[in-house]
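Appendix C reproduces, verbatim, an entry submitted by the partner laboratory led by Prof. M.T., so that reviewers can inspect both the input and the predicted structure.
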Amino acid sequence: MSQLESKGFWEKIKKDPVPAIGMAGFFGVVGYSLYNYRNKSANLKPSVYVIQTRVAAQGLVIGILTVSLGFHMYQTYLHRNEPHENALNLHHHHDQHKDTNAKH
């Protein structure tokens, strides 16, 4: 991988870290399940162990999506420095309405 490609990769991660977090979580769940497979209970069937691993991975995905959605909503609606576009349009419409009433 060239330095230019590497720079673009890190810029993409800084812009949107959710896919990188998801990939790290995926490899974490797979690694953890492979490591603990030999330590599982003797009564636990391999198919049940795979199902439990799948449920853990799905829970991780839902958790990441929930946190990223909450963060996005926080940035979009609660932590903005400028007024929302619709708020600007309402103020502009209200000011125009005052001007037309004042002329009559």
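The helical segments are 3-15, 18-37, 46-78, 85-103. Additional entries are available on request from the coordinating office.
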